[in-house]
Design brief:
Adenosine kinase, small domain, ten-stranded mixed beta sheet, magnesium, ADP_PFK/GK, kinase activity, metal ion binding
């Protein structure tokens, strides 16, 4: 499979929370307490950062908040960088590596700031970088780039926390209900949904040779705009690029990984315009809950991972905005809804089971391996009991039960399929699990369809 990947890649600096040190740093800061009650949703001060981290730890949820102040980013770098683990970051960067390691033939990514350091985090198996009309492997590109490349290294701080971690703040004790992560991001190029000129030219010229495209990064756009264009213009430029690929290859399968938006306004606009051109949009329950709330639906059952509520919200959003397919991945299960009557539900189930296995193996091992190694690891990881129960409950609410290998049927005129995930009890990292499962499902579906 030959696959285009856009738009966001960066370097993740992963910090495993030291709860005692965090408790000491928090002290009795009253600004943080106020912001816990009225979250800012972005970071312009140290107290904003601490509030976002504590909110995620308290609720066991994941979020990405954008940093609007360079001094706060510099403080984060000085405070946490030396003790962190660096690796590939950005939805697209992670998904490109997954595709490459799992056996794609050619993966061509858009990289906003391509440097020797950034290239070193890309897979060396099947990733090729366009430069001056040619493709270079991740090993080669560092020697091809001109000396004195002044583009900045794009580094995101990812704060991992685990179930039962304890933080003490302002006389209260916060106990983490489940593992997750909080991301603090300062990234002026990806904030603009930057399209590299070499990728733009190569992708249009060679779109006819591609089997699919997997796209993300829209969630990084900001309402006040960054640079010359605002978010609407940036989204429209990206949409024009996707349409240009479709004009060259009409059956190019495009999957969008939605991401956690800091602005409901941008999230709604992005979903509405992308739904008209792409083949499928993937997201987690947090992201679905945000869209559902904006469109008058109750987000609480979605956040509680109620499979029926998730399916009905996904179907309603698809119907209202003209999207045919949606994939929702949660910690406990993955669900697909589709308006395509010709879709083979067993094929979708196979692809979702494959993705769930790859993500679980990655969580337990902390690294991407070849396909068979991941599947061997996953075979020892139990399926989610909650996910299995929700699968059975969903079947009982469907209009038609098709008696599939797991659970599938018809509901509200849409084809629905659900599979439980596999739960790694002591994950090495939760970073990139959603991207891993989506990319693996995408690749397996391409293989099964061609």
């Amino acid at each position: 499979m030959n696959i285009l990947c856009a738009y966001n890649a960066n370097i993740d600096s992963i910090v495993h929370i030291d709860c005692e040190e965090l408790s000491r740093m928090l002290g009795g800061n009253t600004d943080i307490q106020a912001k816990l009650e009225n979250p800012p949703g972005s970071i312009s001060s140290k107290s904003d950062f601490f509030a976002g981290l504590l909110l995620c730890m308290r609720d066991g949820t994941g979020a990405e908040w954008l940093i609007h102040d360079a001094e706060v980013f510099e403080w984060l770098r000085l405070t946490f960088f030396n003790d962190s683990l660096m690796r590939m970051g950005g939805n697209m960067g992670i998904m490109a590596n997954v595709l490459s390691e799992l056996g794609a033939s050619k993966v061509v990514p858009n990289v906003a700031s391509l440097s020797k350091l950034q290239a070193s985090f890309f897979s060396h198996k099947a990733i090729f970088h366009p430069y001056n009309g040619k493709l270079y492997s991740s090993r080669e590109i560092g020697n091809i780039l001109p000396a004195g490349n002044n583009r900045p290294e794009l580094i995101h701080f990812v704060f991992d926390f685990k179930k039962d971690d304890i933080v003490r703040f302002s006389g209260e004790t916060i106990s983490v209900p489940r593992e997750n992560r909080f991301i603090a991001t300062y990234d002026p190029l990806n904030f603009q949904l930057y399209i590299d000129e070499h990728f733009r030219d190569y992708s249009l010229k060679h779109a006819g040779e591609m089997d699919g495209a997997i796209v993300s990064g829209f969630h990084m756009l900001q309402e006040d705009g960054s640079g010359k264009y605002g978010y609407e213009e940036r989204l429209d430029m990206a949409l024009e690029q996707l349409q240009s690929w479709k004009q060259v290859r009409e059956n190019l399968h495009i999957h969008v990984e939605f991401g956690h938006f800091s602005s409901g306004k941008i999230a709604s606009y992005a979903f509405s315009i992308l739904s008209s051109i792409v083949d499928r949009i993937g997201m987690n329950e947090d992201e679905l809950a945000m869209l559902a709330s904006i469109n008058g639906m109750d987000p609480k059952p979605i956040l509680a991972m109620d499979s029926v509520a998730i399916v009905e919200a996904a179907i309603r959003l698809c119907g209202d905005f003209g999207l045919c397919r949606m994939l929702v991945h949660t910690r406990e299960f993955v669900v697909s809804v589709s308006c395509r009557k010709e879709d083979d539900p067993e094929m979708i189930i196979e692809a979702m089971n494959f993705g769930a296995s790859c993500a679980a193996a990655f969580a337990c091992s902390g690294k991407l391996s070849d396909r068979q190694t991941l599947l061997d690891i996953a075979s020892e990881i139990p399926k989610s009991e909650f996910g299995k129960a929700e699968s059975l409950r969903l079947v009982k609410h469907m209009d038609e039960d098709w008696k599939c290998s797991t659970a599938c049927g018809q509901h509200m005129s849409y084809q629905v399929a659900i599979v439980p995930t596999r739960i790694c009890v002591e994950p090495i990292s939760t970073v990139g699990l959603g991207d891993t499962i989506s990319a693996a499902i995408f690749l397996r579906e391409l293989e099964l369809n061609f």
